[in-house]
Design goal:
Length: 224
């Protein structure tokens, strides 16, 4: 059986990833592709507990190295429990965040640097790389405003507090933003940037175009 396709969505909080991954999954379902949709941190029982710890604004004293280690613990569990079995079974996996997020947020935002993040990725994740990464980059200001509104609504609805990163200063997010651009420049064959304050439909159209091209390329590789 041919190996499945691993597609990740990346970007700042509030960039529209959650909406777009749902729309992409629905588009694939209509075409009989039956994708597996997951997220990081989270996606497994262990990962959901890690997510609650990392994102809760009450966890303010987490050291940067601890934060990064927790992200990779979550990722290792997700790979073993969900991602690798699905890929081995030939399924398409859609993942909201992967190692690019750790490189951007901890490597860039926390100023740990890319080298240690990539070294841990090779060690912990077996160097598993997405076949395609869709990097959503609306303006920094609109992303942060949207993320804060979303988390306030969620807290009011179910009491969940996932505002810890949104409490960071703008300089932190500027470093995250810059690191995402560095990743895209370093890996242009894998990372497709969808940039600007697009409407939901405009963003979806660009995503479908990029995904369709990668699906065609994947099918051609299998036929060869």
């Amino acid at each position: 059986m041919p190996r499945g396709l691993f597609i990740t969505l990346e970007g700042l909080d509030g960039s529209g990833k959650t909406t777009q991954i749902k729309r992409l999954a629905a588009w694939m379902q209509k075409r009989g592709m039956n994708p597996l949709v997951t997220r990081q941190p989270g996606g497994t029982p262990t990962g959901d507990r890690i997510r609650a710890l990392i994102l809760d604004s009450g966890s303010a004293a987490i050291a940067p190295m601890t934060e990064m280690a927790l992200m990779f613990a979550d990722r290792a569990q997700a790979i073993a429990e969900i991602i690798e079995p699905a890929l081995a079974a030939g399924r398409i996996v859609l993942c909201d965040r992967f190692t690019d997020s750790t490189e951007a947020y901890q490597g860039g935002g926390r100023e740990i640097g890319s080298e240690i993040v990539l070294a841990l990725h090779r060690l912990v994740c077996g160097d598993l790389e997405p076949d395609l990464t869709l990097l959503l980059l609306p303006s920094l200001e609109s992303s942060l405003e949207r993320a804060r509104r979303r988390n306030d609504r969620q807290a009011a609805h179910d009491g969940k507090d996932e505002n810890r990163f949104e409490q960071e200063q703008e300089a932190f997010y500027r470093r995250v933003w810059q690191k995402y651009h560095e990743i895209a420049a370093r890996e242009p064959q894998r990372v497709v940037i969808i940039e600007g304050n697009l409407t939901i439909d405009e963003m979806h159209e660009q995503i479908i175009e990029a995904v369709s091209e990668r699906l065609v390329a994947s099918e051609s590789a299998i036929e060869r």
